[in-house]
Inverse folding.
């Protein structure tokens, strides 16, 4: 179980709660959140994320990851979590352990 303030990520049940509210995530959204949270505080490049999550190279044009991050951020913030997924322009994404 990973805990960051009011956000709890349970890899066994593949569930996420914010406070007492369960957040409904797609399988891909959960995988993204879990990977970023396991590397909290570290910038993850798009190249690394594509390799780890999609098992393919990032071609520089695909926006799948950006859209998925946007949806995930919205779901977490709507559930009452502080914004934890940060963009490091030109580098990638970061899960901030403290909101």
């Amino acid at each position: 179980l990973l805990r960051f303030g009011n956000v709890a990520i349970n890899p066994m049940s593949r569930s996420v709660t914010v406070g007492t509210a369960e957040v409904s995530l797609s399988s891909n959204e959960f995988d993204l959140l879990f990977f970023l949270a396991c590397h909290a505080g570290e910038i993850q490049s798009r190249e690394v994320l594509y390799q780890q999550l999609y098992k393919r190279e990032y071609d520089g044009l695909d926006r799948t990851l950006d859209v998925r991050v946007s949806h995930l951020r919205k779901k977490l913030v709507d559930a009452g979590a502080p914004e934890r997924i940060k963009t490091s322009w030109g580098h990638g994404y970061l899960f901030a352990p403290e909101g």
Notes: DSSP finds three helices and six strands in the chain. The chain has a mean pLDDT of 95. Helices lie at 27-38, 46-54, 64-78.
